[in-house]
């Protein structure tokens, strides 16, 4: 009985010792991480962060100070609620509304403070620039709300549809036959619509654009110069309620329905359309670059000159404004999940930059305008500019 007691005490002592040892090697206020038993201290993290990232972080901090100063001059005040609401919009748009906001931000590799600073700067920038934009009836008339039915074009010669050993002539014949079949199918769809099938039901039944198909072909608002020429010509020839005959573009065959013209909308829809126009009209990246160019900056950390073609605060090859948030495609954006490239001053997790005027069936993300064929939208691109130029081609 005594032996058993000693054994139990010995085991308990060993277990307690293990717990204490484990506790001593867990991250704490002084330890950032423990990797295979080796500690990485907070001081080491600070030292390495400074040595590795000081120029990039300093540029971002300079930009924050410059924009803060301009916001103060313009009387622009951004509240914490506005920042939180913008991030919440991104969560909702990406289907992550149930995820804790901090986790949503962390999913892009950012800290909460860094992300919120970037969102704040984007909101400031847009608020400053919109003060100088006037929207006219002619400006609004450049928008059309459309619905579409899309049948995709066959692959072009040079991209075999089946066997890669086919000759170019065989591929061309195959593509021509496929194109003819698509045209005939679209002609039959048009006849069905003219015979009484609603456009919306036809889109749900036949359209090959997954983004608009389930919405009855609804593309949202499109704008001039953002569509293939054939598509644009047909779209702007229609009056609200009218339906086009099948049209051929390099991306496939379309039947279009005009829902509304921008000059005719009222109320909340008018306000939304005006906002889209403003966002497309301002050159936020250029304005931010101008701030950096005009600023008198003396630093022992920053290089004396920037790489050719790069904006101060940018890694070589990046586009847009100084980098701050991880991910995305370069250029100032408020909210991209890391996709490589230089980080920018204002990204919150959430995919690629939204493009309210994307080519129908394309891969670019629609935002408030939900232009045809987009993929995942995010919270906003270049501050005040929800459309990265030029739009990519549609799905092929």
How is the topology of this model organized?
Layout: H1 2-24, E1 31-35, E2 38-41, H2 42-74, H3 80-93, H4 101-106, H5 112-130, H6 137-140, E3 143-152, H7 168-194, H8 199-206, H9 210-213, E4 218-223, H10 229-237, E5 247-249, E6 252-261, H11 267-281, H12 284-294
Antiparallel strand pairs: 1-2, 3-4, 3-6, 5-6
Provide structural commentary.
The chain has helices at 2-24, 42-74, 80-93, 101-106, 112-130, 137-140, 168-194, 199-206, 210-213, 229-237, 267-281, 284-294; strands at residues 31-35, 38-41, 143-152, 218-223, 247-249, 252-261. The chain has 396 residues and is an alpha+beta fold. The chain has two domains: 52-133 and 282-396, no CATH class; 142-264, Chitinase A, domain 3 (Roll), CATH 3.10.50. Strands 4-3-6-5 form a four-stranded antiparallel β-sheet, with helices on both faces. The longest helix has 33 residues, at 42-74.
Overall mean pLDDT stands at 73
Structural class: alpha+beta
Number of helices: 12
* Spatial sequence of strands, sheet with the most strands: 4-3-6-5
Span of the ends, CA to CA: 81 Å
Summed up, the domain count is 2
Identify low-pLDDT runs.
1-24, 156-160, 307-396
H/E topology pattern: HEEHHHHHEHHHEHEEHH
Helix content: 40-55%
Shape: extended
């Amino acid at each position: 009985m005594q032996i058993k007691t000693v054994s139990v005490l010995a085991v308990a002592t060993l277990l307690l010792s293990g717990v204490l040892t484990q506790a001593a090697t867990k991250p704490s206020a002084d330890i950032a991480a423990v990797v295979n038993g080796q500690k990485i201290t907070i001081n080491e993290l600070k030292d390495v962060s400074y040595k590795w990232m000081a120029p990039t972080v300093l540029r971002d901090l300079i930009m924050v100070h410059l924009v803060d100063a301009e916001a103060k001059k313009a009387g622009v005040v951004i509240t914490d609620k506005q920042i939180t609401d913008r991030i919440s919009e991104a969560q909702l748009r990406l289907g992550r509304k149930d995820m804790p906001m901090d986790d949503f931000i962390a999913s892009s590799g950012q800290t909460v403070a860094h992300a919120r600073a970037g969102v704040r700067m984007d909101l400031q920038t847009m608020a400053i620039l919109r003060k100088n934009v006037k929207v006219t009836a002619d400006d609004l008339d450049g928008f059309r709300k459309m619905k579409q039915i899309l049948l995709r074009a066959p692959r072009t010669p040079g991209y075999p549809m089946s066997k890669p050993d086919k000759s170019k002539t065989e591929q061309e014949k195959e593509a021509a036959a496929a194109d003819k079949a698509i045209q005939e199918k679209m002609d039959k769809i048009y006849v069905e619509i003219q015979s009484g099938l609603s456009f919306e039901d036809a889109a749900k039944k036949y359209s090959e654009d997954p983004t608009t198909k389930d919405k009855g072909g609804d593309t949202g608002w499109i704008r001039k110069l953002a569509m293939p020429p054939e598509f644009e010509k047909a779209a702007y020839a229609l009056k609200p309620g009218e339906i086009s005959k099948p049209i051929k573009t390099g991306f496939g065959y379309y039947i279009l329905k005009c829902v509304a013209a921008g000059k005719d909308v009222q109320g909340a829809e008018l306000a939304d359309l005006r906002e889209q126009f403003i966002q497309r009209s301002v050159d936020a990246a250029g304005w931010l670059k101008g701030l950096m160019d005009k600023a008198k900056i003396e630093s022992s950390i920053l290089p004396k000159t920037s790489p050719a073609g790069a904006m101060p605060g940018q890694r070589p090859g990046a586009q847009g404004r100084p980098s701050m948030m991880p991910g995305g495609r370069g250029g100032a954006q408020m909210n991209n999940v890391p996709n490589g490239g230089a980080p920018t001053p204002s990204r919150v997790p959430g995919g690629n930059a939204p493009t309210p005027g994307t080519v129908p069936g394309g891969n670019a993300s629609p935002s408030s305008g939900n232009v045809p064929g987009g993929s995942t939208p995010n919270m906003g691109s270049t501050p005040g500019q929800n459309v990265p130029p030029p739009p990519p081609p549609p799905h092929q």
